[in-house]
Amino acid sequence: MILILRAYFDTVRHHLLLEKVARRIKDDDVMHLLKLMLTASGKQGVPQGGVISPLLSNIYLTEVDRMLERMKGSTRSGKYTYVEYGRFADDLSC
Which residues form the Reverse transcriptase domain (predicted)? Predict the structure, then answer.
């Protein structure tokens, strides 16, 4: 099975990303600036080519990485197909 994540930058939900960032950033001015940057591209997604987009991608996809790492561990020596993946900013392939 091959899993490919595509059009990531176009589909990021702002409220979820802002919640993830707010867990670590306690500065209201930084959060306001980030919200302005995100909403400049519309109601969802992050600006493609934006200098902060790769960082935001990594923050948003951290939970996906953790889930895939758990899958790697559980498939390493079992009856299921071994899971391996690679992620590069906004691209993921399994």
Answer: 1-94
Query: In angstroms, rounded to a whole number, what is the distance separating the alpha carbons of residues 13 and 85?
Result: 23
Give the mean model confidence (pLDDT) for residues 56-81.
Answer: 80
Cβ atoms of 58 and 64 within 8 Å: the answer is no
pTM: 0.71
- Cα–Cα distance between 93 and 37 in angstroms, integer? 28
* Residue 88 in this model has a pLDDT that exceeds 90: no
Classify each residue of 37-71 as buried b or exposed e, where b means 16 or more C-beta atoms within 10 Å of its C-beta. Answer: bbeebeebbbeeeeeebeebbebbbeeeeeebeeb
- Hey, what are 31's tokens? 């959060």
Nearest to 86 by CA among 7, 72, 77: 72
Q: What contacts 49, CB < 8 A, 6 or more positions away?
A: none
